[in-house]
Amino acid sequence: MKTFDYARADSPEAATREGGEKVRFIAGGTNLLDLMKLQVETPEKLIDITRLDLNEVEDTDEGGLRIGALVPNADLAAHPRVVKDYEVLSRALLAGASGQLRNKASTGGNLLQRTRCYYFYDTAVACNKREPGSGCPARDGFNRIHAVLGTSDKCIATHPGDMPVAMRALDAVIVTLKPDGDKRRISIHDFYRLPGDTPEIETVLESGELITHVELPAPPKGKQTYRKVRDRASYAFALVSVAAIVAVEDGKITNAQLGFGGLGPMPWRDATAEEMLVGKAPGKAAFEAAADALLADAQGFGSNDFKIPLARRTLIAVLRELTGVTA
Amino acid sequence: MADQEQRPTRDRLTVLDRAVQHVLGKGVDRTDGPAKVTGEARYAFEVPADDALYGCLVTATIGAGRVEAMDCKAAEAVPGVVAVITDDPRLPADMVTSMQAPDAWRLGHDIHFFGQALGVVVAESWEAAREGAARVAVRYAVGEGRFDPDLAAPDEEVPATAFVPPIHKDDFDDAWLNAEFQYDETFSTPIHFPAAMEPHATLAVWDGDALTVHSSLQSMAGSAKAIASALDIDVERVRTLSPFVGGGFGGKTSVGSEAIYAAIAARETGRPVKVIQSRRQIAYGVHHRPATRQRVRIATDRNGRIVALGHNNATVQRDGRNFVEPVHFGTIHLYGGAARSLTTSLSRANHPTSGAVRSPGEASGTMALEVAMDEAAERLGLDPIEFRRRNEPQVSPTNGKPFGTRKLLQCYDEGASAFGWNRRNPNPGQQREGDWLIGMGMAAAVRGNFTVEARATVRLETDGSATVETDMTDIGTGTYTILMQIVAEALGLPAEQVKVVIGDSDLPASAGSGGSFGAGSSTSAAALACEQIAQTIAAKMGAARENLTLQDGHAIAENRRVPLTEILGGEAVEAEGHAKAGDHTSAHVSSSYGAHFAEVAVNAVTGEVRVRRMLGVFDVGRVLNRKTARSQLLGGMVWGIGSMLHEDAIIDKRTGQFVNPDFGEYHVAAHADAPPIEVRFIEEIDDLANEAGAKGVGELGNSGAGAAVANAIYNATGVRVRDFPVTLDKLLAGLPPV
Question: Oxidoreductase: present as a keyword of the record (chain B) (predicted)?
Fold first, then answer.
């Protein structure tokens, strides 16, 4: 483990002022510490933000929720309003990691969880995300857990999270503080970046910028669920996951918000797939059209080819479950 | 069914036959439990040592070639680094063992496999050592590696002198070609990691020329021998200590290379040194269960009686290592059929060393054989149990010797009845509950039983308590508890009056834990010691041995009941028991048996498999402790679930590196994958197996358990997968459309 400096921040402003390219904020540390032990992450300084006053979950004036960046996954999953109004989020949180990890992992940190790509974790080999320009062994290697959407020649890694997938389906807004004191409100749809030629840059966060809150809009219309498909019953990353919110009124789908995990380099959302549903009668034709739209550009790399039919089947099953229409 | 009348029997009574304390066999709580849950039990890396240094291994980052140069300057410059050791000719590439000469692991600058150990960085803290190790700059000449061996065209036949030799009986080809029914399929099994929770770790301390090694080991004397051989020193100078071991699963039958690095570094620095292997290093530095390719041929007559049985396999080992996964081991005595061809060949590859991992042979062998039996039964139109029943041999079908206790048919019957086997629909893919397809499967379990040489000293103290000492280990299995029970039973003492001292190579030598022989062998040695003590007590009472009963701390004979303290009269009695290898095993075939039953639900949309319940019924001879025996069998069944559904250590075919060398991506069964599991015993003391009448338990549970799950998946879905593990991607194409 590379030696590093450690400082505890006593205000968000102070934390951002200490931030920088070689600085990491640490909250739960459930991902960062593992990566530091392996020297995948080698920060020169850690700013401990765990004492900051960012632990509250509050109602917003618009009827939504404002979640402090330090709210642990376990607490957020059990929060009465999350359970009542944002079931998809509660379910996604509980589908992630283990009880111990959910007690430690924070809301802000979980948004920034890094990929589980095997080659990213192994400093003995090349990885464009870890060492830009060094190459991507995953593309032609073993890539069972890798992405089928949004990949680039440089990187086919997936975002591993569950919570962010639900937040993407919920149109969350990420609130940040910059070193110059500016606050930003970033739609989760604009928060993550596709790998392109710079897979090492995963979000639009700037140097020293700190996530302080996540805001959820007022509860969406419709039924919600989170379906996670994985290799074992617990404590495994998603092969495919679907965060779904679907409303049916008068025989027509009136709202469809779909997030996907395990498929892309970021929590995935596809407006075209949702358009195939809204205004349509729930049923096989609409469900298949949505799946076709989602996966139109999907590309497998060998060992992950199965994710394409798996995603299709899982999405259709979730839509049937939420609409109650099986035909 | 085996004719019990033909079974040879013993002509004398053992100390246990005469015992009446009734503590043996009871589900006594493990005596080391409180120490373990309170943290009082210290594992190797936790043993305190004043002024200790910490070492981190430097490992190879190519899979084949040579080290041209190692630049250690940057490592030496890390604050806290005390020494960087890369040039001692004794440095091992991986595990050391007393079963091979040092050239098996002394590879010098030749790289045989990715992750091979090359040196050690020693520092004042573990963090500094780790940072130093990362800064050692190795210049390589990269060689041509063989990372993807073709198991369909293996390199070497295994010689007839092998531990499990090839078996050819009658004319297999002739019987095969002329049979009424032929089944012929090929299976593959992946690499499995032993994956013990406690990593391989060592504290080495020199006192003059004497070396003490606190390490995580399955055997004490054998390990001391291996360490002495690796260090080129006399074995008398080496003491190994492993009072607590956090799981072994075969991976600690050899000595982790870190022990040798720690010893060399401690010598060089003049301070105690602790070296621990990280989880990722363990994947390479510790031997694994190798991948196999298995062709199973079953030929029968029109009544489903096997006339020819072929189990022809290939597996992998690196150059220089002599262990060969004995894939056909479990097949040798399991089913009838006169003509047989049972072979395992070898391919060489630039892979880390393969070795004996829990249930070597049977674990991977039954994954294929027991699925093949299920498939063959279906093609014959027979119930899988009925097919097995028709092929239950009277004597060993391979060597004609009689069996010891063999309650396999009773295991099937009791299991079928208790599990509700009659509710299984023989037509697959027919039972559905919502999105879930439901199925049942079963498989046989078999594990060869060995008694090996073991010694134990028992001392009946003047206060009437007893102490038993042997260099056995308790790797989470319950050794402390069963040794306590056997001595309490044999000497007629309350269990809490018996003290057990193990895990120290200075104690009388046993073979340690491995091959399921630990319990039977060490308790036999203890029982033999107790018999000598009983004879001494009888003599002191002036009674004939056969008239002596020991109970509740008293000796009862000749109408007298005398406290042991009184008989001893201030003089302790000590005896050493010596259980000899092969005492009883040459004249008959000794094995443990069982039957596994599994019910699974397979998601019709995604192919996710959830085991709903399992039952195992086992014949293990005398049950020494119902609780610890159950725990071992249950744990083995959980491994069966994991090995059939998840476990798959993948080697990158381009580099020889493991793709998933951590618990994040090498999936063992999680709690949520383990359903309610029931364990039952068909108990019959096997008086020929050994003095204790106990057969091996530790490896039986995962023999056949995975196959039962695979057969249940087929029954649920109608999809037969032969390339294990059965992950959901392999089922998808055969599932109903959504």
Answer: yes
146-185 of B, contacting A, C-beta below 8 A: none
| CA B465/CA B468 separation, integer angstroms | 10
If one counts the domains in chain B, the total is 2
User: Confidence class of residue B161 from pLDDT cuts 50, 70 and 90?
Assistant: confident
Q: How many domains does chain A contain in total?
A: 2
Question: Is 0.95 topped by the overall pTM?
Answer: yes
CB pairs under 8 A between A and B: 93
B396 and chain A in contact, CB less than 8 A? no
Beta carbons of B672 and A317 less than 8 Å apart: no
Q: Do residues B595 and B553 share a domain?
A: no
Of the listed ranges B13-22, B54-63, B157-166, B620-629, the one predicted with least confidence: B157-166
Question: CA B227 → CA B117, B203, B240, B280, B395, distances in Å?
Answer: 16, 13, 9, 23, 42
How far apart are the CA of A175 and the nearest CA of chain B, in angstroms? Answer: 31
Chain A residue with Cα closest to B666:
A236
Q: Is the peptide bond before B725 cis (omega within 30 degrees of 0)?
A: yes
Farthest-apart Cα atoms in chain A, separation? 63
Task: Kindly state whether residues B438 and B550 are assigned to the same domain.
Answer: no
Position B229 confidence tier, pLDDT thresholds 50, 70, 90: very high
The average pLDDT across B582-601 equals: 86
Residue B699 among the catalytic residues: yes
d(CA A233, CA B89): 47
Q: Is the pLDDT at B361 greater than 60, yes or no?
A: yes
pLDDT in tens, B439-493: 999 999 999 998 899 999 999 999 999 999 999 999 999 999 999 999 999 999 9
Residues B569 and B463 in one domain: yes
Give the residue from chain B lying closest to A125, CA to CA: B61
Structure confidence at residue B581 (pLDDT): 79
Q: Kindly determine whether residue A232 and residue B127, on different chains, have CB atoms separated by under 8 Å.
A: no
**Contact call for B728 and A239, based on CB within 8 A:** yes
Using a 10 angstrom Cβ sphere, with 0-12 exposed, 13-18 middle and 19 or more buried, the burial of residue A261 is buried
Q: Are B71 and B136 in contact (CB under 8 A)?
A: yes
Helix, strand, coil % (nearest 5) of chain A? 30, 20, 50
Q: pLDDT value at position A258? A: 98
The two beta strands, B677-681 and B573-579, are unpaired
Find the domain containing B538 and state its range.
4-30+451-579
Q: Which residue in chain B has the smallest CA separation from A311?
A: B606
- CA dist B307 and B9 (Å) reads 31
Shared domain check, B571 and B466: yes
How many angstroms away from the CA of A212 is the closest CA of chain B? Answer: 29
Q: Flag residues of chain A having pLDDT under 50.
A: none
Q: Does B130 touch chain A (CB under 8 A)?
A: yes
- Closest residue, chain A, to B654 (C-alpha): A141
The answer, yes or no, to whether residue B538 has pLDDT greater than 70, is yes
What single-letter amino acid sits at B477?
Answer: T
**A33 near B CB under 8 A:** no
Q: Do B732 and A317 touch (CB under 8 A)?
A: no
Q: Give me the half-sphere count of Cα atoms (radius 13 Å) on the Cβ side of residue A217.
A: 12
As a whole number of angstroms, the longest Cα–Cα distance in chain B is 83
* Residues spanned by the domain of A239: 223-323
CB contact under 8 A, B670 and A233: yes
- For residue A53, give how far its alpha carbon lies from the nearest alpha carbon of chain B (Å): 32
Give me the pLDDT at residue B498, please: 98
Write down which residue in B547, B579, B611 finishes a domain: B579
CB contact under 8 A, A142 and B654: no
Residue B251, φ and ψ in degrees, nearest 5: -70, -10
Task: Give the least confident one: B6-20, B252-266, B466-480.
Answer: B6-20
CATH assignment of the domain containing B611: 3.30.365.10
ipTM over 0.90: yes
